[in-house]
Design brief:
The chain is of the alpha/beta class. Helix 7 (262-270) runs parallel beside helix 14 (406-426), helix 16 (455-465) crosses helix 20 (577-594) and helix 17 (480-494) runs parallel beside helix 20 (577-594). The longest helix has 22 residues, at 431-452. The protein is globular and about 75 Å long. The termini are close together. Bound molecules: 6-O-phosphono-alpha-D-glucopyranose. Residues 304-307, 351-353, 356, 359, 402-404, 605, 607-609 line the site of 6-O-phosphono-alpha-D-glucopyranose (G6P).
């Protein structure tokens, strides 16, 4: 979490940085700040709240500079406040620094520095690291670069840091371990950011900095080094990203835009991969490792948040058609549990951002134990994409709304394609069903388009239910994780307490909550569970609960029983979550909007969780 932007070059740094910070606000929005350096004149402006609040507060200030650093914060150490906002200044006032990550041994370093007489203006780990760097520099009379190298060898945790030195206005110094850093290379200028979105309108040439690398950046020079002071040749890549992809395109909110983009994103995800007529699935990452994947003794899906829900749905699909046992793990639990990994185990790491700290470490742990890592990632060139042994991109395009929507359905599509390919290879699926599933999958983008036509109806439902304080989401089979995802979306976006549960398990607890105040949302497209779900709905109605059901077109039975329905086109039940989740995304989004919340930036959340 936290977004960082920096600039050095002939342009005015301030507008470049502010525009960039606004694009990165999805990474955190507790406070924002900027440090500007011009001819040894170093100024820091920072403010609690959104980037717009900072902008407003410094109208009329001298903002002229050709080098600067900016930060938008998701608080870890220290409450959101002006004082804890970045950039921080060193004790001498000579250095300014921004930081994304957590310095885990900051308390120890702080004690050492306090004994030496240092006082701290903030509660942050960042200020500790900054003074630690300055202290080393003063004691060793060495360059900033050298002191940074020494400091980082003592530091545990994750970081991207960027430093400005008042005495060297021609240089930015940055370092990375565990948090993302992209450097854009322009003509006589450089741009630094947590992702490429602040950079694309200026240049498409970028370098993704790796862990344990330092970057020394001047207007027309970029030097990369490792912590051993050896130079590394920067690997310059071309960005495959258009500006329009990160703009709202006529929608009021990114979340809404991203929900409505799903016919296209699913299509893009299938394009070039699925040929339903010929019965082929082309995915190089899968094809090149088909032996490993199809002979896997066990598949372990590792992910967090919404991506974890995609893994849960995939568990049903892989077990059903590939006959491979699957476990789905929260990356944060898996990494610390000393998990048992056997040769022949395959890890599928699922991540939109490719930067989630827990998922990264979980992969690294599994890799150490010899597991084969397959990444299902959205952000091209991200850390998880790079550390995986093989993978498949989800091609959903930039997802800016903090709550994941289009990335989730794209993850499902990729996971379904992988499962189908393995099942076909293993012959655990009849050719007839294989061909039928391929053609159903091919039809999904059109069906998503069709179901989105009912958005007005869903908006009305959101108005109707906006006053509730709790909701229960239920589903069975691979629509149980859809219920979890629906509940997660609702609580993230509308701050209504919601729980997802397997519909049958509801009798072992949540049924106690059911009364006329409680909406119970069923993810109930046509499936083998239909009759069982009808019984569950009866159980809710018998206790006067309100039933809101996502059902397949033509399902008159549930339609008659439920208080309200949201319909989705019919498809094979194996892939039905691709449709059934979308009304729930819309419902949460409209409900959040109806309550007047910023659905793109829900409180306390961040899109990319780069701290554990
Ligand atoms: C955060 C986001 C979620 C996302 C989760 C995992 O909590 O708000 O939308 O599902 O992180 O992120 P990842 O990028 O690894 O999919």
């Amino acid at each position: 979490m936290c977004g960082i932007v920096a600039y050095i070059g002939p342009r005015e740094a301030y507008p470049v940085i502010m525009k960039g910070l606004k694009r990165l606000e999805y990474r955190g929005y507790d406070s924002a700040g900027v440090a500007l350096l011009d001819k040894h004149n170093l100024r820091v402006f920072k403010k609690q709240g959104r980037v717009a609040v900072l902008e407003e507060s410094i109208i009329g200030e001298d903002l002229h500079a050709h080098a600067g650093i900016g930060h938008t914060r998701w608080a870890t150490h220290g409450e959101p406040s002006d004082r804890n906002a970045h950039p921080h200044l060193s004790a001498s006032g000579r250095l300014a620094m921004i930081h994304n990550g957590i310095i885990e041994n900051y308390a120890q370093l702080k004690t050492e520095l306090t004994k030496k007489g240092y006082h701290f203006k903030s509660d942050t780990d960042t200020e500790v690291l900054l003074n630690f760097i300055e202290d080393i520099q003063e004691n060793n009379q060495c360059s900033l670069e050298e002191s940074l190298r020494i400091a980082l060898k003592r530091v545990t945790g994750a970081y991207v840091i960027v430093l400005l030195d008042r005495n060297h206005p021609d240089t930015l110094i940055a370092a990375r371990k565990g948090s993302p850093l992209v450097i854009g290379i322009g003509k006589g200028e450089h741009f630094l950011a947590s992702d490429a979105s602040p950079i694309i309108e200026y240049t498409k040439e970028v370098v993704y900095v790796n862990d344990y690398e330092l970057a020394i950046i001047k207007c027309d020079e970029l030097i990369l080094k490792n912590l051993g002071n050896e130079k590394i040749t920067p690997f310059v890549q071309k960005l495959d990203l258009e500006l329009t992809a990160i703009e709202k395109g006529g929608y009021d909110h990114f979340m809404l835009k991203e929900i409505f983009e799903q016919p296209d994103t699913i299509f893009d995800c299938l394009r070039g991969r699925l040929d339903a007529a010929k019965g082929t699935i082309t995915m190089a990452g899968v094809q090149n490792n088909l032996d490993k994947l199809s002979q896997a003794k066990r598949i372990i899906m590792v992910a967090c948040g919404t991506s974890w829900h995609a893994g849960l749905i995939a568990e049903y699909i892989f077990e059903e058609i590939c006959r491979i046992p699957v476990e789905v793990e929260y990356a944060s639990e898996f990494r610390y549990r000393n998990p048992v990994i056997h040769p022949g185990d395959v890890i599928i790491a699922i991540s939109q951002s490719g930067e989630t700290a827990d998922t990264i470490v979980a992969i690294e742990k599994a890799k150490e134990q010899g597991a084969f890592i397959f990444g299902v990632v959205n952000v091209v060139g991200s850390s998880i994409a790079r550390i995986s042994d093989a993978g498949a991109y989800t091609h959903a395009g930039p997802e800016i709304g903090v709550a994941s929507t289009k990335a989730f359905t794209a993850q499902l599509v990729v996971l379904i394609l992988i499962a189908l390919k393995i099942a076909h290879e293993k012959q655990t699926l009849s050719d007839e069903r294989y061909m039928m599933l391929l053609s159903e999958l091919h039809a999904i983008p059109e069906k998503v388009k069709e179901l989105l036509h009912s958005s007005r109806h869903i908006r009305k439902l959101a108005e109707k239910y906006k006053g509730v304080s709790d909701a229960l989401y239920l589903g069975r089979g691979n629509n149980f994780p859809v219920a979890l995802e629906g509940a997660l979306k609702l609580k993230e976006i509308s701050y209504i307490h919601a729980e997802g549960y397997p519909a049958a398990e509801m009798k072992h607890g949540p049924i106690a909550l059911v009364d006329e105040q409680l909406p119970v949302v069923f993810a109930a497209p046509k499936s083998v569970y239909h009759e069982k779900l009808i019984s569950n709905i009866q159980e809710i109605k018998a206790r006067k609960g309100m039933v809101l059901a996502v059902i397949s077109e033509g399902d008159d039975v549930i339609a008659k029983m439920a208080d309200d329905i949201m319909t989705v086109p019919l498809t094979d039940e194996l892939i039905s979550p691709l449709l059934s989740v979308i009304p729930l995304q819309l419902f949460a989004c409209y409900l959040g909007m109806a309550k007047g919340f910023d659905v793109d930036k829900p409180r306390n959340l961040a899109k990319s969780v780069t701290v554990e």
